[in-house]
Amino acid sequence: MSKLGENSLFSQEQLRKMLYDMLLIRRFEEKVEQLFQQGKIHGTMHLCIGQEATAVGACAVLTNEDKIISTHRGHGHCIAKGTEVDRMMAELLGKVTGYCKGKGGSMHIADLDKGNLGANGIVAGGLPLATGAALTSKMKELGYVVVCFFGDGSTNEGAFHESLNLASVWNLPVIFFCENNQYGMSGSIKEMTNIQHIAERAASYGIPGEIVDGNDLLEVTEVTKKAVERARNGKGPTLIEAKTYRWRGHSRSDARKYRTRDEEKEWKTKDPIELFKNKLIEENILTEAAFLEIEEQVKKEIEAAVEFAENSPIPGEETLETDIFA
Amino acid sequence: MRNITYVEAIREAMSQEMRANQDVFILGEDIGIYGGAFGVTNGMIEEFGPERVRNTPISEAAISGCAVGAAMTGMRPILELQFSDFITIAMDNIVNQAAKMRYMFGGKANVPVVIRTPGGSGAGFAAQHSQSLEAWMAHIPGLKVVQPSTPYDAKGLLKAAINDDNPVMFYEHKMLYGVRGDVPEETYEIPLGKADIKKEGTDVTIVATSMMVHKSLEAAKLLEEEGISVEVIDPRTLVPLDKETILHSVRKTGRVIVVYEAVKRGGYGAEIASMIGESDVFDYLDAPIMRLGGRAVPMPYNAFLEQKAVPQVEDIVQACKTIMNK
Ligand SMILES: Cc1ncc(C[n+]2csc(CCOP(=O)(O)OP(=O)(O)O)c2C)c(N)n1
């Protein structure tokens, strides 16, 4: 992990906030997993435990006006972009107070006020949308940039290739942020592509391709910041590939037969939260006591979210046919 | 006879055909060691190996086109499209290529491809993973469309589909995968275009597909107690449609309700209703033909709303009572 030192992009307060957000994502998902096992959440779910640094790192260098587009594994992106966990939890419980009034669920959370243009259940579905959102920014000279998150598996969809090409020829302010967690469901990236790094694909579209350690929060912020600056200065898109790992299975029904327990153990030694916490302690930005304080606050925030969600009403039948047309 | 699940019946059909014919193979996302998103191909890679149980990248456009290309050159591929919603990405290859090829080439091309895909709601997967889009396919000349409702039908119809020299869309329902039924071990085919009378009756004919067959049978049981005798017909294939079995039943009962899960508006129920209306059976009708279909809403996540979006047993019971009083 790079040195924070004097020329850090962030104040100490901001650094601690990033740690807070990563922990909030982790605990939120652990809670969601538990509620799912208790039968309080239905459907399916995709947890990003282990990948907290990509979400928080990338969003840390964005303004409120900048936009993100998320994936089916999007809880982390939402939280990192400022989406409140109480209304997220309500959405997962299918409640009317949720961000999508209970109609979207885990895979479809959107929070347009915070620049979150929505999660997507279609693999690679977000890339063309992000390209379009960036086109708006350019045509109307709005100055915002768009960060589009997607997984390594998405990069074999036609939409990936077509979007990178389009964004490149139109020189759009969009950052294609690939969270390479090594697997698309059961397909390992090694098995599904014949290149070593997804970032190499950027060359085909004449845009920069950056590789970053996705478990290193500060590295993620640095690389993303550079890409954001390029985009804001009219220099067009960047493809970022962050190497990371999804600790849990793809979704609830995954027996993880396609990978070894040793491999999982190995990646868990690179826990992005532990790494960043140790870094802050090492550089005297955080004390153990202050960390315990953060843990306590996170716990309270999650408890409050669950309480809010559980006490919220479910949507009535009269809402079934609302929100279809303007 | 053995009692096995819908999943096991489908797997058995594929395995038997693969043993019988080297040209038959299966391709799709996560169908290898993972066993497919719904476990349909569980264990198949062990028997047939990775050449014939071919795990693909997440690339619906490519793999659907690849299946068509393999089919026109002498193979008999079965494509597992992970969720029927993703047909949108495979659409060009199915609609513009597979469906038209024989006709455009003056009868020269043979395209024996089966596209198996789970549709339907009830699992809490929300709007991008719960649709019933079979009417789209039924609209396209050159495609056969199958919708088995029982394990017995699933096995026999799938075998017929695999041995058919045309592109066949094979719609499975994700809530039927666990349903059990009697299925003979030996090989048998159910011809495409042959409806099945799931229950005989004299007062009302219900024409129901997929999941709605089971709901209609339940409703029929309840109505029996009230002295209303319901006949339940399952067309099993939308294309070709067994008009005779349906018309014969309507001649007998004089009343007909078409029940299907897909959105009622523009759906296949209208096709069946019109087919009856245009036939000489029209004179036998004692009441206007009724349709019960899904509401015109993207499938909501919330479990209560999800239920309200598609016909339920009570709705079918009510419809039967209404039509009896007409
Ligand atoms: C078009 C499409 N194909 C397949 C799926 C099923 N599916 C959902 S997530 C997923 C894996 C995606 O892998 P990746 O893009 O690497 O993201 P990750 O899950 O690793 O975050 C698959 C195959 C889907 N939702 N959409």
TrEMBL record, chain A:
Top EC class, one word: oxidoreductase
Function: The pyruvate dehydrogenase complex catalyzes the overall conversion of pyruvate to acetyl-CoA and CO(2).
Cofactor: thiamine diphosphate
Pfam families associated with the record: E1_dh (PF00676)
EC number, UniProt record: 1.2.4.1
Stated name of the protein: Pyruvate dehydrogenase E1 component subunit alpha
Catalytic reaction annotation: N(6)-[(R)-lipoyl]-L-lysyl-[protein] + pyruvate + H(+) = N(6)-[(R)-S(8)-acetyldihydrolipoyl]-L-lysyl-[protein] + CO2
The keyword Transit peptide is annotated on this UniProt entry: no
GO terms classed as biological process: pyruvate decarboxylation to acetyl-CoA
SUPFAM superfamilies: Thiamin diphosphate-binding fold (THDP-binding) (SSF52518)
Keywords, sorted A to Z: Oxidoreductase, Pyruvate, Thiamine pyrophosphate
Organism: Aneurinibacillus migulanus
InterPro entries according to UniProt: DH_E1 (IPR001017), PDH_E1_Alpha_Subunit (IPR050642), Pyrv_DH_E1_asu_subgrp-y (IPR017597), THDP-binding (IPR029061)
Signal sequence coordinates: none
Subunit architecture: Heterodimer of an alpha and a beta chain.
PANTHER family in UniProt: PYRUVATE DEHYDROGENASE E1 COMPONENT SUBUNIT ALPHA, PYRUVATE DEHYDROGENASE E1 COMPONENT, ALPHA SUBUNIT BACTERIAL AND ORGANELLAR
Domain Dehydrogenase E1 component: 20-315
Molecular function GO labels: pyruvate dehydrogenase (acetyl-transferring) activity
TrEMBL record, chain B:
Molecular function per GO: oxidoreductase activity
Domain Transketolase-like pyrimidine-binding residue range list: 4-179
Cofactor(s) this protein cannot do without: thiamine diphosphate
Swiss-Prot/TrEMBL keywords: Oxidoreductase, Pyruvate, Thiamine pyrophosphate
Record Pfam families: Transket_pyr, Transketolase_C
PANTHER family membership: PYRUVATE DEHYDROGENASE E1 COMPONENT BETA SUBUNIT (PTHR43257), PYRUVATE DEHYDROGENASE E1 COMPONENT SUBUNIT BETA (PTHR43257:SF2)
The protein's name: Pyruvate dehydrogenase
